[in-house]
Amino acid sequence: ARILQVSSKVNSTWYPASSFSSSVPTVKLFIDGKFVESKSDKWIDIHNPATNEVIGRVPQATKAEMDAAVASCKRAFPAWADTSVLSRQQVLLRYQQLIKENLKEIAKLITLEQGKTLADAEGDVFRGLQVVEHACSVTSLMLGETMPSITKDMDLYSYRLPLGVCAGIAPFNFPAMIPLWMFPMAMVCGNTFVLKPSERVPGASMLLAKLLQDSGAPDGTLNILHGQHEAVNFICDHPDIKAISFVGSNQAGEYIFERGSRHGKRVQANMGAKNHGVVMPDANKENTLNQLVGAAFGAAGQRCMALSTAILVGEAKKWLPELVERAKNLRVNAGDQPGADLGPLITPQAKERVCNLIDSGTKEGASILLDGRKIKVKGYENGNFVGPTIISNVKPTMTCYKEEIFGPVLVVLETDTLDEAIKIVNDNPYGNGTAIFTTNGATARKYSHLVDVGQVGVNVPIPVPLPMFSFTGSRSSFRGDTNFYGKQGIHFYTQLKTITSQWKEEDATLSSPAVVMPT
Ligand code: NAD
Asked: What is the 3-state secondary structure (H, E, C) of 418-433?
């Protein structure tokens, strides 16, 4: 079958399995605890990227529907914020269990709409699940601070309190993980949440919402609206929304950061990347080449932490032919096909953009060592496939170096020294992730300390921190001052209230007004 069949658990209100092959199903809104059909007259087609068949339609929610979503969150907030932290934790504990039980079903929806391989889609869910598990530590994470006896009979303490209604705007490339970076952290702190999933991949969010409801989250604590620019503007402008979490491109992220901040909201925006892997000649060759190929081409390069640029230092330049051989052996196929290493790109436009960037390399003097532009995948001739591509002799001035390609393309630069490599990485505007491959501890330490990038791997190609830490991309890869998940995530979704309290013995009562600033 060309189209994945999902189980009856998913055969709910948004993607009835029976209609996959006949009529086109519609994705519902999730408002006030109900999956409701939008009254919109504007709908966006959802395609299976492996076939380009239309598999569903997602509405651009009407103003009234978006208002209803925020009003529902606002109504639900006081009671949810007042629900004991232990009860909120219980909801999340049940939630993590339900996500585990439904992991494969969520993954199937991801492969269907996004195109990545099923194994990779399971990883997408799993990495989001880890954030939910971490959110269950709320009873430690949300602790305030105390300082007793700051003066006679006086104590000082702080609470971390929820903000109110928070919102999330998500990208297409991690349909489960990225929404799970957002609403579980916000909600466990006592906030309510409006989520706008990527209009290209709404299915996983809908199933995650159903599972959250089944875990006991009260109606209105999570609302989901769909749409594009109008929905984004609505979120940025709405006075009842206190904070926005955004993950996606720089173009959208900068805009949302500015517009949301202008309306007095907290905004955290994780954005684009150009991640460099620096290969030292003393590295373990076998391990390094495998790591590099996996991290450059996995998920067809559609990861913000894809290792899309290699810098081969000194003698490591000689490894290029072997790198090409390994990349050649990767199997490109529809994500649900056994043995597939990488699936299609998200849209025909994405494929065209990636191919144009490869073309630009040729025009600007680089060499194409491996060319995936003309690949044909048997049985999936209409899919948005690009095979692994390696461009060498790349200079930092070239378009294929400067742009985030977001496809299965590795650009390769060469330097004679580590210092030159560090300069290239630090001159690049992005600061999402980087990796060094070496067997020398001093080299690794020097690189980690001098490189101006927020997430560094030492012999680890995709150094995405686990949720007890935070996702700490920097420079042009991030706007805001508090990162996603970990302690920083809790800080983003809470505000401090500090209480100074004095309890005197009765006979110590002030005998006259204290008019001087207390010292
Ligand atoms: P995108 O910016 O096109 O879309 C993200 C969200 O913003 C979607 O919900 C979309 O509806 C909305 N949007 C898109 N264009 C908009 C605009 N002009 N104005 C207002 N809203 C807009 O991003 P994408 O293509 O879905 O995702 C890929 C990008 O996301 C890449 O640049 C990738 O590096 C980045 N990304 C970053 C991280 C990170 O943590 N740093 C993680 C994943 C993806």
From this structure: HHHHHHHHHHCCEECC
